[in-house]
Amino acid sequence: EVQLQASGGGLVQPGGSLRLSCAASGFSFASSHMSWVRQAPGKAVEWVSGITRDGGVTTYADSVKGRFTVSRDNAKNTLYLQMSSLKPEDTAVYYCTRPPVRGYGTLVTVSS
């Protein structure tokens, strides 16, 4: 069974930083392309970032490009999302995904 558990969310002021982690189990993590998505209150799910199985290629939504960095540690079966220069519009529940499976999310709130 594919299991994905995101963590590291919290309350941060505008301009601040957070690092999200996603612990993966139940499948071959090192063989899987992975993504981060988010869902703000009352809005549709938005794709945020993707990374290839070896971490060699990363992609980002225009809304986060230059501020977020995705990475992975295949030895630890863990996906990361480093977020900086956070804005109130980044407030959302963040999920890691191994399409089409989406795991448990972590809430990020950007507010002063």
Please describe what this structure looks like.
With 112 residues, the protein is mostly beta strands. The chain contains no helices and eleven strands. It has strands spanning 3-7, 10-12, 18-25, 34-39, 45-51, 58-60, 68-73, 78-83, 92-98, 101-102, 106-110. Strands 2, 4, 5, 6, 9, 10 and 11 form a seven-stranded mixed β-sheet that branches. It is globular. 29% of the residues are buried. The model has no long low-confidence stretch (mean pLDDT 96).
Using brief descriptors, characterize the structure shown.
mainly beta; four-stranded antiparallel sheet; 11 strands; seven-stranded mixed sheet; 112 residues
Shape: globular
What's the main sheet like?
7 strands, mixed
Give me the strand/helix succession.
Answer: EEEEEEEEEEE
Radius of gyration: 13 Å
State the assembly state of the protein chains: single chain
Q: What portion of residues is helical?
A: under 10%
Summed over residues and divided by their number, the pLDDT gives a mean of 96
Task: Summarize, please.
The protein is an all-beta fold. The protein is built from no helices and eleven strands.
Layout of SSEs?
Layout: E1 3-7, E2 10-12, E3 18-25, E4 34-39, E5 45-51, E6 58-60, E7 68-73, E8 78-83, E9 92-98, E10 101-102, E11 106-110
Parallel strand pairs: 2-11
Antiparallel strand pairs: 1-3, 3-8, 4-5, 4-9, 5-6, 7-8, 9-10, 9-11
